[in-house]
Specification:
mainly beta, 8-stranded antiparallel β-sheet
């Protein structure tokens, strides 16, 4: 497990500015080190699922703080690209690492 890539895990939040206007924006929740892998064609068929070529696997160390906050409503920013989280797995419930499957958004934020 080589966690050598820095990623941003973000959540969508609503804040209020100094004059009371509501502002919605993505804010960074965590900046963990991750292992990043592309999914391969072999994985598509072995899993018997429909997956796109834009799927990535992010593996990060387990943290109790993150365990309470990681949901599929979050997104990941990595290498200038935005990824919507599709699935989060505490691998075999060992509390050692999270395996996160995410789908890259096309330019302009469209899937």
């Amino acid at each position: 497990m080589a966690y050598t890539k820095k990623i941003d895990v973000q959540h969508y939040t609503e804040t209020t500015d100094t004059i009371g206007n509501k502002k919605k924006a993505w804010e960074t929740l965590f900046k963990p080190w991750a292992e990043v892998n592309c999914t391969g064609g072999r994985e598509y068929y072995a899993a018997a699922q429909v997956n796109s070529e834009n799927d990535m696997i992010f593996k990060i160390r387990y943290s109790r703080i993150m365990a309470d906050k990681l949901t599929s409503e979050l997104r990941i920013i990595y290498n200038g690209n935005t990824y919507n989280i599709k699935h989060i797995d505490d691998f075999m419930e060992q509390h050692r690492e999270f395996v996160i499957r995410a789908e890259r958004l096309n330019k302009g934020g469209v899937q």
